[in-house]
Amino acid sequence: MTDQNGLIEYIRELDLTFSRLAYRVRMLQSRYTVDEITDTQYVVLRTLRKGPCNISFLAQMLGVTMSAVTALINRLHRMGLVDRKRRERDRRQVRISITPAGLQVLKAVEEKRYLLLALYLSQISEEERRQLLALLKKTIDLFEREKIPEENARPL
Q1: Which domains does the chain have, with CATH numbers?
Q2: Model pTM score
Q3: CA 52 → CA 46, 88, 99, distances in Å?
């Protein structure tokens, strides 16, 4: 039981650490990208760079309602950063794609973000950065594997 308690305490600390890191990075980056786009708009443009998709996919990815994504896409469309195209077979289906202007804004925001992160991450050694990246990738791989049977999970 002690090992289980130790693991739970570790998970609490890890959760707090990830939350603090994400908060600090968001706050830092939002100070320098205020004139361009919001964090959510950034995530959408980055996703659309990989290829067109529909509103329901974006809603699921962001964990928000389809109406919230529709409003977000409307703003991006008014800004000239995304295009909407109805499918020929089913006119109810709309594909969202990034425009050349959207790609330019995305590139500018990424350059600022990466330069800011470089200022901070340059404070740790190259070896530590390599280890950090390797551990984060390994953790992501664990979460992207087949689901662990949730019936084995017990309440804490």
Answers
A1: 2-152 (1.10.10.10)
A2: 0.74
A3: 11, 15, 10
For the sheet with 94-98, list strands across it: 53-54, 94-98, 82-86
53-54 and 94-98 as β-strands: parallel, antiparallel, unpaired?
A: antiparallel
> 45-69 in b/e burial notation, b at 16+ Cβ within 10 A?
bebbeeeeeebeebbeeeeeeeeeb
Which helix (H) or strand (E) segment holds residue 97: the answer is strand 94-98
H/E segment holding residue 54: strand 53-54
In terms of phi and psi (left: phi > 0; alpha: psi -120 to 50; beta: otherwise), the region of 37 is beta
Question: How much is the pLDDT for 84?
Answer: 93
Query: Residue length, the chain?
Result: 156
Q: What is the pLDDT of residues 74-132, one digit of tens each?
A: 999 999 999 999 877 776 788 999 999 999 999 998 988 888 889 999 999 999 999 99
Distance separating the N- and C-terminal Cα atoms of the chain: 12
Q: What is the DSSP letter of 124?
A: S
Across residues 50-54, what is the average pLDDT? 95
